[in-house]
């Protein structure tokens, strides 16, 4: 059974949890044995969080969530690939989740690596090269807009990731067009612990 929340209600719930986290008053909800037992045969998350794999960006903690609340997908630099797209489409099409949050953060190592590659022309080795290649367009877009600070580049990359998701997935773009889900770009500030919308607020509806 899918959640009955609207995209706007889902974001409000995340905002409230993040505010508690910022203030140091987290409730740590849905983390007890009865909650665990209730989820054995089903899950009804109200949000999909696609974020960076950085250890400082633990989604359930910064939004004060518990078991079954969020369907979380993470890659370094929140880079999209086919497995990510499949996971997000599962969340929207099968689990009927009303909100996707693309979660970036300041001081991102993956974005910094892409910026360094643009600056030096030296590509990293191994599969890190694949990450850098996928983030480089965001670095270039930020520079075209006059931004040189790494945190401004993170915001641009978060926006670009949200756009790429909608461009790449017909089912998710259709769900957004129908008002069944929304895609928000959100930037997280490590020092403050605060998550702020940087794109997609117009998709929330009411």
Notes on the protein architecture:
- The chain contains eight helices and five strands, in the order ααβαβαβααααββ.
- The radius of gyration is 17 Å and the shape is globular.
- The protein has one domain (7-199): Beta-carbonic Anhydrase, Chain A (3-Layer(aba) Sandwich), CATH 3.40.1050.
- It has helices at residues 7-23, 33-38, 59-62, 82-94, 109-120, 128-144, 150-168, 170-177; strands at 47-52, 70-75, 99-105, 182-189, 194-199.
- Helix 5 packs across helix 6 (128-144) and helix 6 crosses helix 7.
- With 206 residues, it is of the alpha/beta class.
Question: Which tags fit this structure?
Answer:
8 helices, Beta-carbonic Anhydrase, Chain A, 5 strands
Please outline what is shown here.
The protein is of the alpha/beta class. The protein has helices at residues 7-23, 33-38, 59-62, 82-94, 109-120, 128-144, 150-168, 170-177, and strands at residues 47-52, 70-75, 99-105, 182-189, 194-199. It has one domain (7-199): 3-Layer(aba) Sandwich (Beta-carbonic Anhydrase, Chain A), CATH 3.40.1050.10.
